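Please, structure for the following, as tokens.
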Amino acid sequence: MGDVVAVRPGEDIRGQAATSESLIHVSASARGGLPAGTVVAVYQTGGVEDQTERNKDHSGSPAPLPPEAPPGAEPLPPGPTRPPLMLVEFDDHPIFRAGERVALALQWSPVIDMYLVWVGPQGRFRVDDQDRVQPMLLEDPAVGSLDGLTIDELLARVEAIATD
């Protein structure tokens, strides 16, 4: 459990998509040994993508249409076709926001030297003002039944699974 204290652009380790690095202030941990007060960096696909270089590639004359283009098709006009900065995120796993309270199943990645949300959005829960959790994937049978549990109830379930 924790609070998102900052979100910043992450390193693009795959060269394909924007990424984010969120700093989470841990308030409680069911297992894994993260003491309360620890701040961890969590890596996530999605974030602000700079389109400047891509836009430069489209600033000249329009390319000719391929032979399979339908009759009457027109090439894109020259000039930027995208805004300079674009937010890229997934509906079921949006970028963390500073101030957000979350419950996360984290997995350490030595390759990038930070945490990942284990099993993507299945391992991510919102925490409301009444300390109740809501899974990001509410309709998912693996986590949907956890909707509405208190933080203490969720921690107890995780601890029970960890000791089985």
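The beta strands are 2-9, 19-26, 39-45, 47-50, 85-88, 101-104, 106-109, 114-117, 124-127, 133-135. The chain has one domain: 2-46+90-163.
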